[in-house]
Amino acid sequence: MTTGTALSDFAKRLDRTAEDTEALLGKLLSDTVLPDEIARPKRLMEAMRYSSLGGGKRLRPFLVVESSAVFGVPRDAALLAGAALECIHCYSLIHDDLPAMDNSDLRRGRPTLHKKTDDATAILAGDGLLTLAFDIVTRDEIHKDPTVRLLLTRALARASGIGGMVGGQMLDLAGEGRFGDREPVDVARLQQMKTGALLRFACIAGAILGQSSPKEYQALDDYGRALGEAFQIADDLLDVEGDAAALGKQTGQDAALGKSTFVTQLGTDGAKQRVRDLLAHADSALAIFGARGEVLRAAALFVADRKN
Ligand code: GRG
User: Which terminus of the chain has fewer CB atoms gathered within 10 Å of its CB, N or C?
Assistant: First the structure.
């Protein structure tokens, strides 16, 4: 997918998934009380909607939808799994912005949730999104076979939790010296956990929902890991070279905190070369899918070249 037409098709697909995800999240975060729930407090729902609706590229849902499309998984099921993942992503951003973490004032071009409301509301909105994600991913509409739903749920928990995003965040804070002396940081390992794990999950979700062969699963796993690292390097580069207005958040944060990043370790040129290597790796991982892998191929290029 290298022609202009193909790239504009890609942009349309990305927009369509973003719109569908927005609509779906709107429904999932409605005030309607579900069976076994007692009430949906107004302040909590408003806070969850503020941080989940009306912003974000919806890259993770897009990857779930497109990795699922490779196996002909029904789009509605993939969108639901993507919405669950986006709930986890949005929760992580809310908590990451809190004064106890990154203490950020701006997210997606708007005041962060704790600035708009207060810390307690932001903590609870994050908790609400995290738990909602696991409600969604176990729903019957995700897949008729409960074993598939179970595998997906476990993969989501492992990507989000101790050995994934939460663990990565802990390593990051320890590396900043938050708990005493700065702990040595293995940047690649840390980022593989902190941001890579959710992106990798988005890619293997299609293989799980599509009940792929082990080889196909491995291919998406390899692709997802390469894409996750490329995403993070692009993020590190944007923090150095990016435009705060386009990003909707402050730049120069990593340097201000004295953080080790791919850019501090490899230099800007080295980081850019690493992205090129990762793109080649992602491309070769997708070879097994032939033309069915085209959109994912374009997604890797998009991730590496993003401006926000
Ligand atoms: C607080 C448990 C906990 C975890 C936080 C992922 C994370 C761990 C924090 C996010 C901090 C951050 C900004 C990392 C850089 C990479 C990243 C996740 C950027 C935001 O993702 P995008 O670009 O955001 O997909 P949008 O707004 O498009 O959804």
Answer: C
Residue type, 10: F
Pocket test for ligand 1, best of 14, 17, 62, 92 (most atoms within 8 A of CB): 92
Which superfamily is assigned to 4-305 in CATH? Farnesyl Diphosphate Synthase (1.10.600.10)
User: With 60 as the cut, is the pLDDT of residue 3 above it?
Assistant: no
Mean pLDDT on 233-260 = 80
Domain residues of the chain, as ranges? Answer: 4-305
Task: Return contacts of 27-33, CB within 8 angstroms, 24+ apart.
Answer: 28/83, 28/87, 28/132, 28/136, 29/53, 29/132
Looking from the CA of residue 86, the nearest atom of ligand 1 is: 29
In residues, how long is the chain?
A: 308
Give 288 Cα–ligand 1 centroid separation in angstroms.
30
What count of other Cβ atoms lies within 10 Å of the Cβ of residue 116? 15
Degrees (nearest 5) of the Cα angle 17, 83, 16? 5
* pLDDT range class, residue 188, cuts 50, 70, 90: very high
Average pLDDT, the chain: 94
Residue whose Cα lies nearest atom 13 of ligand 1: it is 93
CB of 92 closer than 6 A to ligand 1? yes
